[in-house]
Structure prediction request, 105 residues.
Amino acid sequence: MKKVVATLALFASAMVNAQTVTCSDYIESIDMQNDGSYWIQPVKEETIELKPTHQNFYNYLGLMYNAMQSNKKVVYTSDNGERSTKCHDATRGLFPLYEIVRVVD
Prediction:
């Protein structure tokens, strides 16, 4: 029972530190990784990761690629790994992509 409580407490503390943020930036590069995921590097913000298990994987990859090629800004939601509402986090550099909100001219 103590192990279950300790595990739940650890999970809860991890959830407190994570903050979903909405960021807006141009895409500088998109790199495929060995595991099939893509690391998307915005110009100003931290690198975001698009995993092949994401329900909108191909759609979001296409939107990011088109935005990069046409120099359009992407508005997206991600986890910044901290309690603040900032998109930029100096302690961790790879964030999961949750959703693309829109692509702006």
The first helix runs from residue 2 to 17.
